Amino acid sequence: MNRVTFAVFAVAVALAALIVVHGGHSGKVLLPEKRESLREVDKMIPSGYSFEALLNDLSLTTTTRSSIVASMDNVYDTSKLTAGHVLSLFTDAATNEVKRIVYNVNADQNLEIQNTDSGDWRSAVKDIPYDIKIETIKGTIDSSVYQTLIDENKDPRLAVLLSEIFAWQVDFAFSVQKGDSFEMIYEARYLNGVYKMPGKILAAKFINSGDPYYAYYFKSDKTTEGYYDENGNSVQKIFLKFPLQYKYISTYFTYRRIDPVNGAVEPHRAVDFAANYGTPVVSIGDGTVIDAGWRGEYGNKVVIRYNEEYTTTYGHFSSFAKGIKIGAHVKQGQVIGYVGATGLATGPHLHYEVRKFGTLINPLSINPPAGKPIDSGDKDAFAKITSTYAL
Ligand SMILES: [Zn+2]
Q: 297 CA distance to ligand 1 centroid (A)?
């Protein structure tokens, strides 16, 4: 590569990175009604920042502050303000008065705090009005789905969505090979003409060592929302395969592990997932919390019981999610706590155990039953989906 093409290449890479980074805080701003008179300033919420600190920064009158706080009653719990999320302030260009505050709650919603014409404040959590475009992407893998997307200048977050859909069919860590291929039809989210992020995957195909796997998104009154293969069978199981998005597995399930500290041979009948501090950890199925609290070497620990057969144990949480206590009911995918290093842990990771009829088994080799197939009354509606999104 000569110097000029390298420079062009570098700029392209930098642009791609910018788009991706910007996409991460997507959808922060809704157009104010009187845009021309308002000035917008965006800031990233710093760590440890509170809503009270925010209001103090704005040098508002005490009356205005309490009016804003009152407007948020039963609308949004400001203790959930999260570092790294974007907050946009709209001030009157002439008077410098704060007219509107928009906090990007998550990928789907904004909290809008608005000064009305009558002078009082109203708050509401609103869906971000993305423009949705149905887009298709195909790729052939050289090293990984992620790398293929990067190489094609596509959003690498699609790789995570694909691996979540086919988590039970394809081992994305070990069995993906050069020459495998994929195709996805998905809702791309745009705001004011700018691409923000992938939305729902409508249909996906993955060919692994010549074997094709299909998944079509479907939901109705009779059929549970989810992904179904070309025959209408669920590609999901009653449990999620992984309880978090992890970086790598730091310790596998083994009956003989040499302890790094004292050299003794001890079993590790669990899997340790290395992940960033604060990474959300979810329940793998619908169940009941049967233990939650500080438990010695486990640190902050949660145990969930799903049915007669299965329980899972999660250790070293930095903190518990709201409402997680003994007796609480949890849904599949519900956040129960956050990765940490409490108890006996050298760094942030999730210690994860699965018990079947009380016996510890390898979490990576469980084979739970599949979810229910498409309801027989939905056959025609599902056939329409598979032909609309033919792969
Ligand atoms: Zn462990």
A: 10
Using CA atoms, how far apart are residues 154 and 137, in angstroms rounded to an integer?
8
pLDDT for 21: 32
Rounded CA-CA distance 68/111 in Å is: 12
Separation of 168 CA from ligand 1 center, angstroms?
A: 23
- What's the gap in Å between 292 CA and the centre of ligand 1? 17
- Indicate the number of domains in the chain: 3
pLDDT, tens only, 308-338: 999 999 999 999 998 999 999 999 999 999 9
Residue 375 has pLDDT above 60, yes or no: yes
Please, what is the average pLDDT of the chain? 87
| Residue 372 CB coordination number (10 Å) | 15
What is the domain range of residue 72?
35-127
- Cα 316 to averaged position of ligand 1 atoms, centre (Å): 9
If asked whether residues 74 and 115 sit together in one domain, one would say: yes
Alpha carbon of 340 to ligand 1 centroid (Å):
12
Cα 293 to ligand 1 centre (Å)? 17
Whether residues 286 and 341 share a domain: the answer is yes
- Indicate if 119 and 141 belong to the same structural domain: no
| Whether residue 113 is found in the same domain as residue 169 | no
Tell me the CA–centroid distance for residue 349 and ligand 1, in Å: 8
DSSP per-residue codes, 48-85: T--HHHHHHHTT--HHHHHHHHHHTTTT--GGG--TT-
